[in-house]
Amino acid sequence: ARKIIIDTDPGIDDAMAIFFAFQAPQLEVLGLTTTFGNVSVDLATQNAITLTEIAKVNVPVAKGVAVPSKIAPRPHPDFVHGKDGFGNIDWPAPKGKAIEKSAAQFIVDMVREFPGEVTIIALGPLGNLAKALELDPEVANLVDEVVLMGGTAIEYGNVSPVAEANIMNDPHAADVVFTAPWQVTMIGLDVTHQVLLDNRILERIKQANPTEGGFLYDCAQHYINFYSSRFDMNGCYFHDASTIAYVMDPSIFGVELGAVRVACEGIGIGQTIFAPQGMSFPEPHWNDVPMTQVCMEVDSQKLLTLFETTLS
Ligand code: BDR
Ligand code: CA
User: pTM for the complete prediction?
Assistant: First the structure.
């Protein structure tokens, strides 16, 4: 099985991704690392532990960064994920505790223990990944791949016309991640806005798997209401769980290679700027930037079927 660490800010679609990964026989989850984002890092940590307890899996949870590296924190989007991060469902607090290590240290230690084997899946702002590189720059050469949900190459943003939420929450950390010498795959709004998860699918998963499926169905109602009240749609976008599908079956996606950098100030703050491979620019900002694989196409039906069958 492929070894993964999930860095996360649960979050309703984070919960979908985490249960998806727990149920996938192709994946071995080494641990969950947490960050602020949809909720505070303390609540994200509690929520991550709650998910391990619901799924009855014994994986460590390591708490990570509480604030962005260089900008003021943005408010938590409780209108999207609820005050509790789970759609205001009043779930009881978990019994377990986070491990003593920081998220960044946990990432470094796992990557050192299994050189070349660990894939980091990032579902929130990227502060923990940037910190891990700072603690141990060799990590970049020792991970298998970084697969992140965030950004957008050509699609509109979701927190500004050009910025996606995870990148906007810590643009400096994101720029560190995109310019480090590791293999990054970006799964952004270009593809996640092409996939709509609706209640019919969630109901079928709940029927087949009342524990995880029932929990996800209950959380998702707040999320789906947000999307259907704001946009002309009947369901929610499939953001974070797309990363898990990518790791299980990359053929679901079409990718383009290019350099990605992040705007860190001004009205474009949080934008992931994509320079397709082969183009060259005289601006020094674009010298020697490693190639990111940017997902631009997705087989939505295949993706949703993989999610449903894995969770059922
Ligand atoms: C991303 O932002 C968060 O609200 C979601 O959990 C997802 O990671 C989508 O822009
Ligand atoms: Ca998330």
Answer: 0.98
Integer Cα distance of 35 and 62 in angstroms = 9
**Which residues are within 5 Å of ligand 2 (an ion), measured at CB?**
9, 11, 14, 123-124, 240
- Kindly state the percentage of the chain with pLDDT values over 70: 100
Distance 149 CA to ligand 1 centre (A): 8
47 lines ligand 1 (CB under 6 A): no
Amino acid identity at 140: A
For ligand 1, whether the C-beta of 7 sits within 6 Å is: no
6: left (phi over 0), alpha (psi -120 to 50) or beta: beta
Residue 172 falls in the annotated catalytic set: no
Whether ligand 1 lies within 6 angstroms of the CB of 38 is answered as yes
Q: Give me ligand 1 centre to Cα 281, in Å.
A: 31
Over residues 97-112, mean pLDDT = 98
Q: Is the CB of 166 under 6 A from ligand 1?
A: yes
Instruction: Find the catalytic residue in 81, 239, 240, 299.
Output: 239
Q: What is the pLDDT of residues 248-301, one digit of tens each?
A: 999 999 999 999 999 999 999 999 999 999 998 999 999 999 999 999 999 999
pLDDT of residue 82: 97
Per-residue pLDDT tens digits for 201-225: 999 999 999 999 999 999 999 999 9
Residue 147 has a pLDDT of 99
